[in-house]
Amino acid sequence: MRAPRHVDAAVHRISHEAVTNVVKHAPAGGACQVLFTLSPGQVRLRVLSELSPAHHPGRPREGRWHVDVRIPFGVPA
User: Fold this and answer.
1) Could you give the C-alpha distances from 76 to 18, 23, 72, in angstroms and in order?
2) Fewer Cβ in 10 A, N or C end of the chain?
3) Residue of 23, 11, 15, 26 whose CA lies nearest to 64
4) pLDDT by residue (tens digit) across 16-37?
5) What is the pLDDT of residue 77?
6) What is the pTM of this model?
7) Cα–Cα distance measured from residue 64 to residue 47, given in angstroms and rounded to the nearest whole number
8) How many whole angstroms separate alpha carbon 75 and alpha carbon 7?
9) The pLDDT value given to residue 63
10) Phi and psi dihedrals of 6, rounded to 5?
11) How many Cα atoms within 13 Å fall on the side-chain side of residue 30?
12) What are the residue ranges spanned by the domains of the chain?
């Protein structure tokens, strides 16, 4: 099973931007996970990272930052 090319392109662009943000904002040595799930008619992309307290002054640290995107494709029957 493959997603259409335009969906592949969207997943690539979103994941690239999310990982770029991780590199810019995550604490040094922080971990990042990029998870893809392909199911009939949908791609799910999740990017998980540690939060940097320096970028959230005055707010309690929640511990994680994430992107969770579901991109549907195909024509309903």
Assistant:
1) 30, 38, 10
2) C
3) 26
4) 999 888 888 776 766 789 999 9
5) 53
6) 0.73
7) 10
8) 13
9) 59
10) -65, -30
11) 20
12) 5-72
For residue 3, the 8-state DSSP code is -
**Helix H or strand E encompassing 41:** none
Which amino acid belongs to residue 27?
P
How is residue 35 written in tokens?
């998870």
CA–CA gap between residue 26 and residue 47 (Å, rounded): 12
Residue 29 and residue 23: Cα distance in Å, rounded? 10
Tokens 């990272």 belong to 49
Which of 18, 76, 21, 6 shows the shortest CA–CA distance to 46? 18
Report the alpha-carbon distance of residue 62 to residue 11 in Å, rounded.
26
Contacts of 38 (CB under 8 A, 6+ apart): 1, 2, 3
